[in-house]
Amino acid sequence: MSQFADRRRSDGRRVGDLRNTHVLRAVGADLTQLRRQVESVRAERGLPSALLRRLELIDEELSRIARLTDAATAPLPADSADAHRLATRLTQREWQCLGLMVRGMNTRAMAERLTVTDATVRTHVQSVLAKLGVNSRLEAVALTVRTALLPGAYPG
User: Fold this and answer.
1) Is residue 6 one of the residues assigned to a domain?
2) Residue 56 shares a structural domain with residue 93
3) What string of DSSP letters covers 79-115?
4) Residues 156, 87: contact at Cβ < 8 Å?
5) Tens of pLDDT along the chain (156 residues)?
6) Are residues 86 and 62 both part of a single domain?
């Protein structure tokens, strides 16, 4: 566990996160500008319907990407400190299980990776859920990503 705690608190991690936030904000601003340009072109009269449909699809995709960048640059929720405090109770094996859950592995795949039985993995997963105060694997993964419990547990 100390390996993960050290990475979470290292200065390089904070600098990297700050740099990523700046990049994402710049991308968000660029997306806003692109959406304005697309909307401007869509407002022109006499455009073929096929072109209008393509512009609409482009605008929808730009909107989707903008929502992702907005979500990624949002401040950590208030429960971040609580989540990190609760996570200090996890054993090394539970950290490993949590990391595999974040990667989307099911019980059998986790058992094969950790060379243990399915029942052992289920026991570790239940311990993770209880220690983090969540009710499902999905909630555990969401909490992990939202509060940056694990290095590299970011969407995208």
Assistant:
1) no
2) no
3) HHHHHHHHHTT--HHHHHHHHHHHTT--HHHHHHHHT
4) no
5) 444 444 444 333 444 556 667 777 788 888 888 888 988 888 888 889 999 899 899 988 888 888 777 766 665 455 677 777 888 889 999 999 999 999 999 999 999 999 999 999 999 999 999 888 888 899 888 888 888 787 654 443
6) no
